[in-house]
Protein 1
Amino acid sequence: MDFTLKVWRQKNARSKGHFETYQVKNISPDSSFLEMMDILNEQLIHEGMDPVAVDRGCQSSGPVSFDHDCREGICGACSLYINGRAHGPDDEVTTCQLHMRKFHDGETITVEPWRSKGFPVIKDLVVDRKAFDKILQAGGFISVGTGGVPDGNTVLISHETAEESMDGAACIGCGACVATCKNGSAMLFVAARVSSLALLPQGRVEAAKRAKAMVAKMDELGFGSCTNTRACEMECPKHVTVSHIARLNREFLCAKFKD
Amino acid sequence: MAEKLISKIPEGPLSEKWTKHKSQLRVVNPGNKRKLEIIVIGTGLGGASAAASLGELGYNVKVFCISDSPRRAHSIAAQGGINSAKNYQNDNDSVYRLFYETIKGGDYRSREANVYRLAEVSGNIIDQCVAQGVPFAREYGGMLANRSFGGAQVSRTFYARGQTGQQLLLGAYAALNRQIAEGTVKSYPRHEMLDIVLINGEAKGIIARNLVTGEIERFGAHAVVLASGGYGNTYFLSTNAMNSNGSAAWQCYKKGAYFANPCFAQIHPTCIPVHGDQQSKLTLMSESLRNDGRIWVPKKKEDVMKLRNGEIGPNDIKEEDKDYYLERRYPAFGNLVPRDVASRAAKERCDAGFGVNKTGLAVFLDFRTAIERLGVDKIRERYGNLFQMYQKITDTDPYKEPMMIYPAIHYTMGGLWVDYNLQTTIPGLYAIGEANFSDHGGNRLGASALMQGLADGYFILPYTIGDYLATQFKNPKTDTNAPEFEEAEKAVKAKIDRLMSIKGHHTVDELHKKLGHIMWEYVGMARNEEGLKKAIVMIQELRKEFWSDVYVAGDKENFNQELEKAFRLADFLEIGELMARDALHRKESCGGHFREEMQTEDGETRRDDEHFMYVAAWEYKGADKEPELHKEPLVYENIKIATRNYKD
């Protein structure tokens, strides 16, 4: 398969970005999107893009930088906005699991980084998602230390509760929800964690405090508000649903009433 | 120099060793802990749990990872589960049984005392994770659920769907986040350790590259913990994450830490087959699938040909024409034989011409019997995310057609040599998790990597490192202006300049793929003397080619993934040679190390206990010099050495 790629190039957070157009040929339909990007990069290196690009006044020369790691849809590192959709045209996959068979031969594909105030661009398609770590540091944990805990079967948890908690815990922290949201809200990310822990007896104790602290941190870091468009749910590669947002709101309101 | 290999295994009966040892370890009082600094490299299960636990104890911890967040470490991708000798199923499991099966699974090449301790603390891990809010699978009555894994005759694997590694890592990452918030741990994401700094022969800091700005930075501490994972990506194609690498451990080796059993690499039997030349990595299908999936190839060659030509599908083959070769060869364990056994059996069938896809390098993993017995819903509940993953990658529906699978490089049992305290041969330098060598011998059992990472990080290292740090609290903070730091930084910068200035004709990936081909061909599933000798020469030549003709794009002062890859490949090109060397010297077959010259009549591994019942620990002797081999004899006081038998 052959494709025309319009790829966002940006040297660093301070510089202005722009699109560059490339052609890639003989791509196997069984290749993943990132394998196609690998091929593009090999091509760019071989074409000696550096001097040419610099001559043309291009600020960001060389191969295209993009975050990736496990390439099996679980680490949450890959983060491309493809043809206007987070993680591209397939549903419930990350970019690394998106395969070229989902595109038409000869198609023009636009590739951009996550665009959100909370995620500044580091280079090309790589963004800084440190804000997610900071939100979790604000309270996304159960305050137990190592050791001195009771036997795992001391507290029974129903099958359904464990499964529901797992639905939220499946979040991979990729940021597709933020990138998709017109408000740049991190509600689905925050809710997934708050809800997953609040469902479990171990996490109930700090549920209200956790909800307040994480929401406050999210606001502080410049993420927008939730207006229930449910776009996040549509694009979440792990099918985390807005029912977790409902549970977050419940925890948050209960906590506020108590104040 | 052999005196460096002192294993420090405590005296006394096996079941009392750890208890006794703990009582004799020195401890640091809380006030002094605050004066001590520890560097932790890596944030997978080992690194994250260690950093969090050390922070809780009051030490000042600096934790480094190469990804943008600690949560992305490759432990996240472990699917099937974690072993623990809880005996919740009342199937007569015990610490001893887990210990015994791990030693046997490792083909009698791991340390008795270490493995026993691992089994001993395995129960605490589950309790710890439950307390952290890990949503393990539960029975309808609310009790924790279990499933079976290869090499075990009981059901002791705890799991969270097919995402157990993710959930355990998120637990450890949460504990880490709590410490970061409290200020005991400082996190350095997107930082790569490029060298270890020794002062008076002891580990006192690192040189790291800030991967965003390209700056070279110095960090000092009283001790360094390496939790940087394995070196499976030496093969280019593996189930490891793209950025997983052996460089941190390799720098330690080059500064004097011995590297043990490098040739023990695990080849996992159930991975999605290679689709073609454009492939960048391989995807694992969890071993848990072998609980319900049955592995087969056709009995008749004509069916094989028809399958390859697309004339028939797998469901068109009659039941009596299917060869369930694992059930046939290993009736006692069937589809749940250990990984090395299952991988070799698949290779044997494919080599004999029964491979089922176009390349002839695939076998079927079939769920039809299980779906008939349990229904689609039950199978979906157990393996839903794995089936979805398979479907997305291959575009076929595993609920309707059997999966196609083939073995791939997955894990490395070898690693830095450590004593019972998990300390390397460099004082003050510790290695935990996959980065060390100690617990899995020649083959790791499924669901034991997670167990080891967390055992080391939560329950072992925080105790043993105190014994060293008790000698350190009087020492002031490490001065990063010391000449040793100066020198190490200069060397790192010179290496970067050298890499950037070559401007040759090959990309980093092209050379890495070449290395991968050599490794898979000659240091892969079957090895022999001639091939290994050839591999050593080929790797040396490739290394020369790399240093004279690689092209590293971009510049050193910025975010530059090509430079990162070049650094790692430079080390893989040395690691690969040591792996081949170790494989060449070990003239026996054991676990994942299969020497064709050493096999039984029916193609099973033939160990040579008389000559090779030892840990091979290699000492670096300088560039282009042969490393020196040291041997730590393996003593089995509690287990009767036997030929591994999974047949009856």
Note: The longest strand of chain A covers residues 3-9.
Protein 2
Amino acid sequence: MFGKYKPMWGEKTQLKSSYDVVIIGGGLHSLATAYFLAKEHGITDVAIIEKNYIGFGGAGRNTAIVRANQRTQYNVPLYKEALDLWPVLTKELDYNLMFNNCGNLNLMHSEAAMKAARMTIATAQFHGVESHLIDAKEAKELVPALNISEDITYPIHGAMFHPPGGVVRHDAVVWGLARGAAKHGVEIHQQTEAIAINTSNGKIVSVETSRGSISTNKVLISAGGYSAGLIYKMLGIKLPISVLTIQAMVTQPVKPLLNHVVSSGAYHCYANQTLKGEIATGAHMDHWPNYTTQTTAHYIKHQAEALSEFLPCLRGLRFMRIWAGLADMTPDMAPILDGNDQIEGFYFNCGWGYFGFKSCTASGKYMAQFMADGEAPDMIKPFNLKRYEQHKLMGETAELVSYTPNN
Amino acid sequence: MVTRITQLPTLRIDPAQKVVFDYKGKDYAGFKGDTIATALYHNGVKIFGRSLKYHRPRGLYSLDGECSNTCMEVDGIPNVRTENTLLKQGMKVKEQNVKGSAENDMMGFIDKLDFMMPAGFYYRTMHKPAVLWPVAMKQIRKAAGIGTISPDFEMPGRFEQIFPSADVVVIGGGPAGMNAALAAADKGLRVVIMESRPWLGGFFDYRTVDYRDSEYKKNKQLYIRAKELASKVESHSGIRVFKHASVVGTYTNNLVTGFQIGGEKDNFTERYIEIRAKSVVVAAGCIERPLLFENNERPGVMQVGCVHRLARTYGIIAGERAVFSVGHDLGLEAAIDLFDLGMKILCVADVREDGQNPYLMIELAKRNILLLKGWVVSEAHGSKRVKGVTMTTLDGTISRDFECDLVAASAGFTPINGHLTLAHAKLRYDSHTNFFVADTMPERTYSAGRMLGLEDSLSIEVSGMLAGLKAALECKKFYDAGICKTSDGVANSQESINQLSSEIDTVTAKLKELPGTARGSKFVNAPVKGRKSFICFDEDTTIKNIKQAVEMGFDVPELIKRFTSAGTGPGQGGIPGHNLPLYVAKYTAAKNSSSGSHPKPTNVRPPLVPTFISTYAGRKHIMMKRTPMDQMQRADGGVFRKIGVWERARYFSNDFSCKKEIENVRNNVGMLDGSTLGKFRIHGPDALKALQRVYVSDMSKVKAGRIKYSAMCNDDGCVIDDGVVIKLGENDYYFTTSTARAGSTIEWIRYHTRFDGWDFYLVNLTDSMGVINLSGPNARKVLQKVISQDNDASIQDVSNEAFPFSGYREFMIKNTIPVKAMRLGFVGELSYELHVPSSYMVSLWNMVKEAGKEFNIQNFGVEAQNVLRMEKCHIILGQESEQRTNLLDLGLGFLWDRTKKDAKTIGAAALRHAENDPTRFRLVGFKMEDNGRAPNDGALIVDDKVRGYVCTARDSFTLNEAVGMALVESHLAEIGTRLAIFEDECKGELIYGKVVPMPFYDPDGRRMKS
């Protein structure tokens, strides 16, 4: 019933000596950009250059949560579009991305947090995104495992409930987009490392790779945590990005227990149940810049301590696996999507921190439009690099700027 | 019921002590020392549960928890590996993932539908039409997951944690590990040894063959040798033994984590163990590599070690009629030993054509056991348990059937490399041992024993000794380098190091003379065309699935693992960890000669053994800071909230609008515990320079006897903290920061002064000083009373002239309590802030309260303060500001001294830039139109777009109207501008306010200043 088994993203081919567009990085933002370039803009002579294999980085390491309840008016429409795209892409790609729109429950642990949530909720509602403030009892009705007693470090006062969010199968998105892009003619070259980008008179002319030189006049770097390093190394453009390790873990699988994504800022912890039944949990980043994907002993312990408090029944489950990925953090926790400015034909898309998964479809769509037109679409204009020079941060995080390697 | 052998010297059960437990509502009995699974097996239970996807019956396969075959629900806890969980009196045991029973599972038919479920089928189905998916998803969720846990489950037991330190940690209590521990401990080092099983001994523990070594007495059996070593280790004063303790993580710099399961006499159920060691010896041994054949996980198919240990350790002969299909000498040895214990063995197939140990060949022959060299089992028959097998030659040309109820199957061994790879060892595939071996070892980490590929018992021991000595040498070097000092004064002279080095040379030479690594058995895939050769049991991943994945373009084992789920189940890589890379290498090589055939291992991740969240978490520990006034405020009816790291009195009644508290401060006098403020002293020759760097104001203008309010900005000009600064002396200042930021601001100051080589000290007094805020028209009278008794006249004078607004005074109360007093006006009234050492806080608090009695002084809490200061338009960072709010946005530009000489003020460049930027936000005050109610904090200011938001707004009792502050785009900041306010849940119904001058209350500041 499944017919012959064929390579999903095409047979391995020789690298050509020239492409219209070269995309460095084989993660979600690259794959999505390539897909939309080919499908929406008819630019099919595209090569994706991936050092390892597609989905090796953040694309395969995130915990697959999607939502559109961000804080600012710039972000909400973008994430809303990304959220709306999951069912559309499932159909278009004919690949089950397994969107489970179970809704996200963001716990609030103080009166102040409840008030802060009102702004986020008002922003969502103003932009037509469903989100509500609910009290602790209502939260417990949604997630019976919640501990709403006073007897914990941060008692639960209520929650921000965002029904349209949920979980998407991250690997499926990688493979689905790769398959879709390849169908439209995009070439995906794995085990191929980009080594240098050559420019002439302020224009892109070629890309050097471990498998030879490619002449092109449009290059996109969207290589997740590695982007900032590559962009600096290859083109000398310095970005206000720190790369930090972020860890996540899963328990052994159990029958349905959590019907919503539950997250808590105060505990630095979220938990959701995968379709396989594992409880996936993670949240904060290590506090120091780090290009490795090493896990640490204390992170898993912290996570256990936090879950023990607000989801105490999980004490009877076992952690099965912890892993780490990279988050490229900007000072305002909003990404940088820019290009065709510093160098003609050079585009970049990075700084997503730990929001790279939820945004990838919309980001790819608008980056593709950007690269096709040479002009940034309105939707992504606010995410330019200049805002940092102008000291105009985006305000995606409400918190005061903390001591980080950036300031 | 299986009869037990109750008289064996190797038994780890006590047949004299019965343990009664409940299985599916009925009482069963096992023996003390049994695991749950061995007790069940003894009682005739062969099927323990059903598999995840196909609901195939699953039985006892291993005894070390490599797969989830024997996972059951025990006392409400799901996924308990009953094969290595000790049986306890009264345990309640249930099957998992069954509809009906494990024996008769109504979902069993799914096994026949495997053709509908090829690799990654779920990505290609169930999404068309779109309405199907939510329905299908529900079913998937129900079908997925193995055990069940109740949302109100409370984990019983006591979970502890310990953090011991050690010179050498030895992972594994087998012969190599024990030798390593002894070698290092004999050199005077502190050694910790961790062993997963409840006893030391490793794979010597259940073996009776001779300890083949001339140096010892002949005819000493291995288990006796194991006991000798164990008693040496356990009686050694330098070795701390953790039995029943698995290592689950190894991290950079030799941090080792694990957990121990408590025994009868322990006061813990489990305890988390974390050790920072100087050196680590990994002697974790091997597990068996599963043999791949059709129905290779049918109940009745077991690993050789499992069959052997069931007999030797638990007294259970696992089957009536057994066949063996093995690839190593241990398999032959097990067959001989089990034959002697009374097992009927029909045949032993060995995939090796040659290379068997001749001694074992003779013993097999003596017992007339049929040995088929170059043969392998290709298929197990029987629907719920094994009823027979087909054996074939490796090329599949000849085959024979046997009727049997037990198949002892093992392809070879797999070294337990997880501890090494987690510590960043790089693995290489070694074609002699057929092991992945660590090529580059982590620093100060050594491995020993079977995991190196050694098989000879003495080689294993000597390799352990060698690793122990090497670990010891590194420790000694560590001490000698002055990094650490020995606790027991062990001499670490160059001499002792030289001696140790030469000892290492001797042992190295000795090891060379002994048999080296054994040739490992090659990867064998039984020649059978079936659909159910399982490479991963937990996820029901078959060889066929792997082929499908490869055909679809997944060519790296790690990716195939993701696509097919192999190795992602409860047992992680235990079953497929070795076979998957070998199979993929073989298959891709056959398919495409150009691609490399070198096996690449999949990732191993912590925890190496699944670990309870309760074990990682330990007991509940709520760590909040409390001020010295905590109890007194609670006694006064304070309603407390956790705010940041503190517990603070937020209200003093159940009226959360705080009407009474507010009115009492406005009309009389109130007191507030302000002890949570960040309080710091900075002093030293360059203290002023540091302040000039971080504050926006010119701090050289801070005068003695006066307080200075100022702010700090980051590089973007955004305000990161504010507070007052007091000059105590030349280059000696006392300053406050906001409560929330205290810790991070101080780090920030250090960060920004780190390169200048300035000489100053920064002292955190946050916890050692307490603060009483005394506010209200009668505050002066109260203060007067408190200090009148014992200070001289000049100090006693707290009149407005003597102690004016913004003044600072120091005085003593009762000649004992030193007070730093500041005249401030955060709440907009006459107000004093009294800073005293925390230990005097209670006394002073009582004095103030006593003195205030005649004025009916009352407490007020944080929320009342919030409203009071809002009416006065005094900002609180984080409420009237956010990350992107700069000094100018807040209207605090007057604090910024642009002309500061010789000081690079942080943020000044950004502020200069922002001065000319018309697009920034401004903080404005507003009143609601038509006497309307106050909007919610966080409500948006909108037109067709979001133009700002309400920071704080309240229905003011003092002003009798609704007022608030908002951050809005600057074009809306003009006085008189109408603000359209969009609240959450307003459904498009806007409310309106009007920008008005700030502050709302006492605009001239007369109340505050007089």
Note: Residues 534-608 of chain B form one domain.
